[in-house]
Amino acid sequence: MKPNNCDRWTTLGMSPIKIKGVQMLNLKKTIFTALMVLSLIFTGSVGAKDEIKFVSVSWTGVSVKTELGVAALKSLGYEASNTMVSVPIAYKALETGDGDIFLGYWYPSMTNIAEKYFQRKTVVNFVANMPGAKYTLAVPTYVVQGGLKDFSDIAKFKNKLEGKIYGIEEGNDGNLVIQDMIDKNMFGLKDFKLIPSSEAGMLSQVKSYERGEQWIVFLGWAPHFMNEIIDMTYLTGSTPDTFGENNGTATVYTNIRAGFDKEQPNVAAFLKNFKFPIPMMNQIMTILDNDHNLTTREAGLSWIKDHPEVYGPWFKDIQTTDGKNGLKAFENYLNQN
Predict the structure, then answer these.
(1) Is the full-model pTM beyond 0.85?
(2) Taking the domain 5-131+251-336, which CATH number applies?
(3) Is the distance from CB of 61 to CB of 223 less than 8 angstroms?
(4) What is the per-residue pLDDT across 283-329, written as a single tens digit (0 to 9) for each?
(5) Is domain 134-249 given the CATH code 3.50.50.60 in the classification?
């Protein structure tokens, strides 16, 4: 993948300990460090009634959606902010009240991270914001033509793949699924190694391998402009224990901290309306790929200005903080930005 605007930010998070028999001291150090990171990020975040705190991760689509959410709520008079962290810390922030909204719960792949918070009823799986997504392992199409079409085929081509599967940032749900597949020897993958990287780093590696038609298996998803810049194919064979049934078909949900919808009914109503068609996200991410000088906020707003049919329904029955028409306030905001 070519460098994108998400990489201008630093993703804050802890890497999982992968070494068996690790000393308890290391585990305690990891937990302590994670709590310190949370404390530093969110110090002083408990504030005014109209302060709304998004948490996000460094994935292009989630970044675009979150920045549009921040802009929309600012137009309504809220003091809205976005803090980029890792997936585990995003959920910890929602649980502790240091964050209010997370727009990037990919189901089913993130179940292993999010489900415990849902069961504890500290985080609410509030509403689907993007059905029809995709999240699973992928390969360049020439690899499929060479015979690697399904999860069950990966181990057969260990040498051509150098025993590696490429993921994104450590702690990410997709990486955890891949590592679980390796640890449990699913599909005969016990001798493979997960290679974590950033979103940009992973796709840069794919593009490099593609030029020489080298073989590579990597974590892929849609919507994303990777589907436009790489001739790629998603592997079949995903299971409920991996990336879900239906070969990795996914739905993305909005999660909120418990009680937020009661405290902020107007914002909760907005979030119920805040949906993202797949073509919209593909087009915005293509804009970002074509112009690396744009931020995710700029690309999102430039697209949305020309599509009132998308943003209009977001503001159905929504008011500003002082009781005025929400749609008119947002359109005034667009004219000024």
Answers:
(1) no
(2) 3.40.190.10
(3) yes
(4) 999 899 899 999 999 999 999 999 999 999 999 999 999 999 999 99
(5) no
